Amino acid sequence: MRIGLHGERREIDTGTVNGERFAVMAGAGFDALMISDASRRMKARLGRFSYLYTGARNLSVRGTKAVIKVDGSSFFSGRVSCVLVGNVGRLFGGIEVFSRARPDDGRLDVGVVTAQNPGEWARTLARVAAGSPRESPFIRVTQGCRITVRFNRACPYELDGGARTAVTKLQFKVRPASIRICVPGGAGTSR
Questions:
Q1: Model pTM score
Q2: Out of 3.40.1190.10, 2.60.200.40, 1.10.1060.10, 1.20.1510.10, which CATH number does the structure's domain 60-174 have?
Q3: What percent of the chain clears pLDDT 70, i.e. is strictly above it?
């Protein structure tokens, strides 16, 4: 690690989904619908609250069947409402989704949400807000380097908050130490 005039330099991982890079998180299903439904005009007026509004509108959207493999092994098969793949553990507002995620560990974290109605979503989101998503019966989490998700019908996806068109297959890969960043002095490398 080098310390420069403006801070420490660190190499961190990035991920790719269908060949396109992301630094923070990518996902399909509920989160992609929430992001794509928040228009620029709505975001300009409501800011981050626009996602609460569009999220609430999508709580009753029926999930889709998915088969998920992580590093070549079967991880999940069944109906999902959301699939998230992250390089870091926290979303905006400090909400922790992946407690073991590190941007420099050479792995991506994978989360599957199976909540299918507003009641199940309320229980799921309460666990996430309390900092214990792994305790939700509607969330499964693992880590890996290569993740393949196949849907039984086209499903919208997003990466780093940018909406993409619906697809039936997503291929995620980690790109270890693929970007160098400058960490402000005093930020350290705490894990």
A1: 0.82
A2: 2.60.200.40
A3: 81
